[in-house]
Amino acid sequence: MSTVEDPILTTTAAARLLGVATSTVQMWMESGAIASWKTPGGHRRTRLSHIQRLMERAPAQPNATIGQAVEAAMSPVSPTEFQARAAPDYPVGKDEATRLVALASSGLIDTPQEERFDRIVRLAALVTGSPIALVSLLTSTRQWFKARVGLDAEETPREWAFCSHAVLGDEPFVVEDAAADPRFRDNPLVQGDPRIRFYAGVPVRDADGYALGTLCVIDREPRRLRATELQALLDLAAIASEEVQEPPRS
């Protein structure tokens, strides 16, 4: 295909086609989600065909996001398989597309356990008197636990994640009795193991402020957090946010 048939696009032009911010396209290019190159002046460029292929891979379901298309572009599964599982049955924020790219760029997903995160969940469980504490990271299909105490599972489907609600705001997200909450009472994690009744989660953010996941505590009995316990959870979530801004350690 000639340059006339497949024109070169600036990041701004690509952003207009995709309906996202220029900074978002820049992150997608840097993460490899969009094929690109740098000019001698250091500016990113791509071709129209690359953007068209990305848009073609976007899930057809009305609730799906361009961010899921980006994750599909970085995924080894076929577009058909990705689309079949892409319609989200969970709440998403307006920045979900960029959040997913920020998570992919963090390099944290599916990395080994690290003491720096394990220490945080142990402390979170201790200071709140909770049997379960997690550093949970949210892809478009999974809730994956970077650190966990009191729970054997390494991940759950994203649509089961209480944390999907917690990443939508800035304040702690608290569910005092999940069995009595219409949003969660039929959730498999409430009906079955670990039989969640109480949940409190605080967003864990990267350097740009994107909520990659949460620090959360869980109990099998309905309850509330005291003010001191909630403050401790907030402080530990701030520490976890500082840690996710560091590169993964071997």
From TrEMBL:
One term of GO molecular function: DNA binding
GAF domain boundaries: 112-245
CDD domains on file: HTH_MerR-trunc
Domain of life: Bacteria
Signal peptide (residue range): none
A Pfam family the protein falls into: HTH_17
NCBIfam families in UniProt: excise
Name of the molecule in the record: Excisionase family DNA binding protein
